[in-house]
Design goal:
- The protein has 327 residues and is an alpha/beta fold.
- The chain has two domains: 167 residues, D-Maltodextrin-Binding Protein, domain 2 (3-Layer(aba) Sandwich); 99 residues, D-Maltodextrin-Binding Protein, domain 2 (3-Layer(aba) Sandwich), CATH 3.40.190.
- It contains eleven helices and ten strands.
- Strands 1, 2, 3, 4, 5, 6, 7, 8, 9 and 10 form a ten-stranded mixed β-sheet that branches.
- The protein is globular and about 80 Å long.
- The protein starts with a helix and ends in a 5-residue tail after the last helix.
Amino acid sequence: MRIRRHTKSLVALLALVAVSVASSAKAFAAYPDRTIRIVVPFAPGGGTDVIARTLAQEMAKDLGASIIIENKPGAGTIIGTQSVAASAPDGYTLLMATFANAVNPSLNAKLPYDAHKDFAAVALIARSFNLVVVNPASPIKSIADLIAVAKAEPNKLSYGTYGTGTSAHLAGELFKHMAKVNLTAVPYKGAAPAITDLLGGQIQVIFTTVASAASLVAAGQLRAIAVTSAERSPAFPELPTVSEAGVPGYAAEAWYGVYAPAKTPPDIIGLLNKSAAKAVQSEAFKKLGVNEGLVMVAEPPEALDRYFSVEETRWRKVIQDAGIKIE
């Protein structure tokens, strides 16, 4: 009797598995049959928004589906990120994640989501870097000059940031730590007011995004002295990296990756990954790469998982060593 009961239980379990597999296969066969949303946890118009819209446009062509961007700014990307974590794991709600997603766990003791358990990686889309810029009238013409002046006049130099934990902020903190110099961080609400004060002499340097500074550098209104990436950029081949210019091992990157809610079916993740990889090869992305200083990646989901973990660990140390906290 006991054997029969076990047999019946096993048959019932196998039947449930078969139904579940059939249901998943049916859902995948129909996917996508409605609008896909990519949540951007920033206001419209910024670099992340532009990249997400270009990605949506190209993936929509490939998938034959409508893909819209939903901007949900607030709380340093936490609001938009949380909305995706709480969404159905069906492939119709995605997150455009950035540098902020890797540093938020170190800046916020109580996030309303788990950065690892609540998300499924889809694709690392691109990596970027910042430019180290100074006033063109400044005597600082290289990283070596910046270090020399900072050491000669401790605590007198300052650099502009765009808020606590932003790439412009942490790139500067990493520089301070590795170059063993003191620079005072001055927070601004964005690149424009920081650059205005740089030109006015109120601050001496900014570790700023390519999008915010490239045109000003080209026009001679700003002087770029280095790039923060590990390797030289084809977009600025004449500029050395901070590492080769005097701070060995220095590297600070921005990045863009797509995530789905945890438990999204692997078949759907795979389809989205292939579509994203195809999108970044488009002419639209090639043009965007030049304008934004991007290095296109579009690697498998596992690569994004590995990259995220490395970034999270690296910036946690910088944040802890500098005693950075969200006020």
